[in-house]
Design brief:
Blueprint: H1 3-29, H2 35-62, H3 71-77, H4 89-117, H5 120-142
Helix pairs in contact: 1-2, 1-3, 1-4, 2-5, 4-5
Length: 144
């Protein structure tokens, strides 16, 4: 595994875990007229993100590296901001939508690295994650 691929996957893992925590935070704290709809939407998304964390970590291990696994490591690697559970439901949705779109951009960069390396296993994982994050961002945006 190249250093570029190693770094891209480590950041992806940290961002996925951070987005999982943020989405779960907003699931717990969302209020307002769309409470039930958003509460359920966030739950579906954080459940998917929890599974993705495992998939990404296992890919890193499969490629012979150690997966970051502490809050300290995640905090050093992540690009996702922490959630503020005092903001409005609309702002929660906007933040999560933007976070998914930003993860897509990072996934596309990582995908190019994996394609150039001929790493089809990583290409498959990243392609699947791109489709999922694009759909999640669309669903969030459609909720505004």
């Amino acid at each position: 595994m190249t250093d570029a691929m190693k770094n891209a996957l480590r950041v992806l893992l940290a961002d996925t875990y951070s987005l999982y925590l943020k989405t779960q935070n907003y699931h717990w704290h969302v209020t307002g007229p769309q409470f039930k709809t958003l509460h359920e939407l966030f739950e579906g998304q954080y459940t998917d993100l929890a599974n993705a964390v495992d998939d990404i970590a296992e890919r890193i291990l499969t490629l012979g590296d150690k997966a970051p696994a502490t809050f300290k490591e995640f905090n050093e690697l992540k690009t996702i901001s922490d959630g503020d559970n005092s903001i409005s439901a609309e702002d929660m949705v906007k933040e999560l939508r933007d976070d998914h779109n930003n993860v897509v951009k990072d996934l596309q960069k990582a995908l190019k690295i994996a394609q150039d390396a001929g790493d089809e296993g990583t290409v498959a994982l990243l392609s699947e994650r791109i489709a999922t994050h694009e759909k999640d961002a669309w669903m969030l945006g459609a909720s505004l």
